[in-house]
Amino acid sequence: GPLRKVLGVWVEEMDVLCDGDRNTVLPTPAGKKIGLADGYKAEVFCDLLHAESAEVLATYGEDFYAGRPALTVNKFGKGRAYYVGSRNEEAMLAALYGHLVQELGIERVMKAELPEGVTAQLRTDGCRRFVFLMNFKPAGQRIDLCGERFADVLTGESVEGVVELVAFGSMVLEKR
Question: How far is CA 38 from the centre of its chain?
Fold first, then answer.
């Protein structure tokens, strides 16, 4: 559609897989250069792509999809646009996003390793830095702040060490 030139691909069809069906996504040599491993599971859907100006980073490994692009990158203007053509296991996304974070020099919001279901977003007013911690799980989560010090915006109290987020809870912390 309207992003065809930006993405450098056109999508012939979006194929929804039957429950339990899977495909494999295999890195090309270019995909291995960015840290993709030998293969990942794809479930739910697999787009049937045609690379026009995009470079293919991974292809499908099975069935009639075999050899078709599954992950691409296209240079456009001063940037790049990635297209992920299937629902992939977390390990593939972690490898791709990890590469992008490193290559682009993106800083972590906080030092803490966040448990599954917890996110941290950074916002600033130009002077102060605020971290919005959110728990999207139905159980409480513990987060080790790894020596960082914050102030709880709602209570004004100093926060360090380990914090607990209640089920579906959130905190707004100001970096010190």
Answer: 19
d(C-alpha 131, C-alpha 67), whole Å: 43
Other CB atoms within 10 A of residue 122 CB: 13
Tokens of 136: 């999207």
Q: Shortest CA distance to 45 belongs to which of 68, 73, 11, 18?
A: 18
Taking only the tens place, the pLDDT of each residue in 49-61 is: 999 999 999 999 9
Strands (E), the chain: 9-16, 23-27, 40-51, 55-60, 69-76, 79-84, 86-88, 118-124, 129-135, 141-144, 150-152, 158-159, 162-165, 170-175
User: pLDDT tens, 118-175?
Assistant: 999 999 999 999 999 999 999 999 999 999 999 999 999 999 999 999 999 999 999 9
The token pair that represents 11 in the structure block: 């999508």
* 154 to 10, 23, 97, 132, 173: CA distances (angstroms): 48, 47, 32, 12, 8
- Per the DSSP assignment, residues forming a β-bridge with 26 are 59
Q: Which residues of 27-60 are buried (b: 16+ CB within 10 A; e: fewer)?
A: bbeebeebebeeebebeeebbbbebeebbbbbbb
pTM of this structure: 0.78
